[in-house]
Structure formats: C-alpha cells, structure tokens
Amino acid sequence: MQFETLVKQRQSCRNFDETKAVEREKLEYIASLARYAPSACNSQPYAVSVVTEENLVKDIAKSTQGMGMNKHCSKARAFIVINEEFAGLLAKTGGRLKDQDFASVDIGLLCAHIALAAADCGLSTCIIGWFDEKRIKELLGIDEKKRVRLVLAAGYAAEDDVLREKKRKEMDKFVKFY
Q1: How far apart are CA 71 and CA 99, in angstroms?
Q2: Is position 1 within any domain?
C-alpha cells in the first residue's frame, strides 16, 4: 500500500469482527517491521508481547475495561502489549540533561510503526492507554518493576466499520514554515 493511502486509511477500530482470527504470520510481519522504529541513541527501550491465546485475550480485554471504557476490546482477537525497558545509559543521560523523556517518545514511535504495519497487512488496531497495568503484568509475567506503557487491540474490522472522515487541524494551524 502507498504510504499516503496507508496513513489516511488507518484509524482506531472500535468494532472488530470477533469471528476472524488473526494469522500468526501477520503478527510476525508486524513485529518484524516494528523492530525498525527509530529510538534515541538506538536504545530501543521497549519489549513487545503479542497475545493470541483465547483465554489470555479475554483476560487482557477485561484489563482494558473499567468505568465504561474500551468495551470494544472484548471483540479484539489479539493484543500487542508494549512495556518499557531500560533505555541505555547514553539515552537515559541525554534525557536527564535535556529534560526529555526519550523512552516515552520512542514507545510512541514504536506504537505508530505497529499500527501502520498492521494496517498495511489488512488488520485494524486501537491504541489503548486505559488499562489495569498490574493485572496485565501478572497475566504476562512482566516484572513488577517494569512499566506497561501501551496496549494495542488488534483484529479485523467488522464489515460495517467504515472509514470515518478525518478531523485534523488545518495546515496553517498545524505547521509553520520559516
């Protein structure tokens, strides 16, 4: 798919087709491309867990719900969980000296690569920031000292999940050229 088309067609899916399983090959493709996401000092301060086992998918879905949030996750057929790892001394030091949280930026870049790679192979995603971190760490055996930063619900969009009109800032409000 052409990059412009990919960017314009990718959207958060809140209506997954729960009858269609996600092929492991597609998830491997996504992971293989996500590895190329840029990071400060090539620190790659993250690890990714791909969840497809049915009961675990249900448990992760429940972990993303609460107070009426993320009900659509119950129909997702896979989850991609991103946790923060040690950033490496150079990136960590640079971040402190420049008062920047490079690891969070790097995780955002990784997440964008995952979402776009998924769209490229016909899958839909929804990036989730509302979740029970402690429960997800328990379910996936992630060290309690590490942080789960983002979760992506993944699957095939339901047939009635149509492409929505993108509401974006006008160019003159978005960018300044000097």
Answers
A1: 37
A2: no
